Amino acid sequence: MSLKLFNTMGKTLQEFKPIHEGFVGFYGCGPTVYNYAHIGNLRAYVFLDILDRTLTYLGYDIKHVMNITDVGHLTGDNDDGEDKMKKSAAERHQSVLEVAKFYTDAFMKDIDALNIRHPDVICKATDHIPEMIELIKKIEANGHTYMAGGNLYYDISTYPDYAKLANLNMEELQAGAGKRKVVVVDENKRNPGDFVLWFTKSKFEDQAMTWDSPWGRGYPGWHIECSAMSMKYLGKHFDIHTGGIDHVPVHHTNEIAQSEGSFTEEDRKEGPWVNYWLHNDFLILEGGKMSKSSGNFITLQTKLPSEKGYCLTDKGYEPLDYRYFLLAGHYRKPLVFSFNGMDSAKNSRKALVNKVKSILDASNGKAADLASLSPKAKEYLDAFKADLENDLSTPQALSRVQLAVKDTELKPEEALALVQNMDSVLALSLVEEAKKAAAPQGDSHEGDPEAAEIDALVIQRTEAKKAKDFATADKIRNDLAARGIVIIDTPTGPTWKRQ
Ligand code: AMP
Ligand code: ZN
Q1: What pLDDT does 442 receive?
Q2: pLDDT tens string 39-49
Q3: Is a pLDDT exceeding 70 seen at residue 62?
Q4: What does the pLDDT look like over 334-389, one tens digit per residue?
C-alpha cells in the first residue's frame, strides 16, 4: 500500500506523491499567541504531529514549518473586530512582545507535555515583515489589489479559483451571503469577501507594532504571514498545508489567493502552490463551542481563574491521557470532549502501560531485531503501517498496538520491538511510562474483568486525597472493602488486591 491522504482541495482520498522523491515539505498554521492554547487548539497540533511522525516512519525526509502569529490577527477572521494581540496586551498591562513571549512559552510547554515533536522551523510573523511586504508587492504588480480608506485590499474577483478550496459560491460571496455571511460591513471593500493585505493607521490609531511599507506605516493582515513564511522556508511549491477546518473558508482560501496571486506565468506552469490540504475537525464541548476569545475554555495544564475555565491536569488527567483520547478518534471527525471519554482514555492508557510493563519484565528489556521478526509479528507491523497509510487512521493504529501487547503467540522480545516501533508514531512514551509504573503488589490483575473499573476508583481515591477530600477518599476505600478489595498504599503509589 502507499500513503493516502484526504485532500480538502477536491475532497477526495488521494495517493500521496511528494514533489521531490523521498522528501516532504509541509506547513501547519501555528497558534495566535494572545492566550493559552485550549485543548481544541491542541487537537490541531497532535494531528500535525501524527502527520510529521508518520511521514518520518514511512521513510521520508521532512521539513515541517510552523508559524507563530504575533501580529495582525483580528478577533474576526474577516478583518473585523479588534487586534487579538493588542487586546490581550492591554488587558495584561504588558507590551505585545511580552504577551507573545509568555504565551509562546506556554504553548511550547503544552506541546512538549503532549510529546509533539518540535517543527523543524518555527517562525514568528514579526520577524518576517520584509518578506510579507515583498510578497504583497508581487500581488500588487499582478493587479489583484486596490487601496481604499488607507488599507491595501485583495480583490477576490481578480482570482478566478478563489472559491475552489471551500466550495464557496462566488455570487453569494460577492453579496456577503452564504457560508461567509458578512456581519460587519466594511464600506471600503469592493466585494464583501475582499480582505486586507496591509493595514495603515486608518484601522487602529494606536497600534503598538507598525512598520514602514510602500502603502504607508502600518501592519500586515493575518493571512499574508502564512503565504510569506511558508514560501520562504519551503519554496513556491510544496507538498502539504494543514490547519483546523475553520481555516478552510477564510484563512486558507485567502492564503491560496495571495500565494498563487503572486505567481509569474512560469510559476503557474510548475503547478499549484500547495498540493495537499489537510484539515482536522473540531474538538467540541458538550456545552457548545470553545474559543479563546469567549473566556470559556479548557487548557491542558495551565491553571485558570475558575470563572474562565479549568485545566485537565487539575481534574486528575495526565497530558498523555489527552493524547490517547485524541488518537482514539480520527482527525477528520468531530470529537466530543467528555469526562467519560477522558476516563476511558486514562484507563486504557494505564492498562496498555501495564501490559508493556509485563512485556518489559518478561523480555528483560531486550527487544527483538525488526529484521528477524516472526511472520505473526511482521503482520502486526504491516497492518500498523497500513493503518497510518490509510489517511492517518490513529484509532486503528492504536488498537493494533493494543492487540499486539495481548497476543500471547508473540515472544516478549518481539512484542517489545513492536511497541517501540509503533510508539515512534503514537508517541505515548509507552516504554518510559512502563518503567515508571509501580511494581505490581499482591495479586496480578491479569484477567480480572473488573480491573479497569477498580483501577479507576483507586485513581479517584488518590485524586480525592490530593484534593484533601478525605470523605470521598474514605468512601471509595470502604466501598471497595465491602467488595473484598483492599487498597495497599506503597511508596510508589497505591495498588489493590482481592482478599
Ligand atoms: P489559533 O491559535 O486560534 O489560530 O488556532 C490554532 C489552531 O487550532 C488552528 O489550526 C485552528 O483551526 C485550530 N482550532 C481552533 N479551535 C479548535 C477546536 N475546537 N478543535 C480543533 N482545532 C481547533
Ligand atoms: Zn495560516
Answers
A1: 47
A2: 999 999 999 99
A3: yes
A4: 999 999 999 999 999 999 999 999 999 999 999 999 999 999 999 999 999 999 99
Question: How big, in percent rounded to 5, are the helix, strand and coil portions of the chain?
Answer: 45, 20, 35
The Cα–Cα gap between 271 and 179 comes to 28
Closest ligand to residue 45's CA: 1
CATH superfamily ID and name for 4-280: HUPs (3.40.50.620)
Query: Which cell numbers in the block locate residue 468?
Result: 484533601
- Topology adopted by domain 297-437: Four Helix Bundle (Hemerythrin (Met), subunit A) (1.20.120)
- Residue located nearest, by CA, to atom 11 of ligand 1: 244
What would the pLDDT profile of 188-245 be if each residue is shown by its tens digit? 899 999 999 999 865 556 667 889 999 999 999 999 999 999 999 999 999 999 999 9
CA end-to-end distance (rounded Å), the chain = 52
Reduced to 3 states (helix: H, G, I; strand: E, B; else coil), residue 136 is: helix
Which residue minimizes the CA distance to atom 15 of ligand 1?
41
Q: Does 40 sit in the ligand 1 pocket, CB within 6 Å?
A: yes
Q: Return the ligand 1 atom nearest residue 242 CA.
A: 10
Residue 166 has pLDDT above 70, yes or no: yes
Q: Domains of the chain: which residue ranges? A: 4-280, 297-437, 440-498
Which ranges in 122-191 belong to alpha helices (H)? 129-141, 170-174
**Residue 217 C-alpha to ligand 1 middle, in angstroms?**
30
Q: Averaged over 42-60, what is the pLDDT?
A: 98
Strand partners of residue 65: 27, 121
Q: Write down the pTM of the prediction.
A: 0.86
Closest ligand to C-alpha of residue 282 is 1
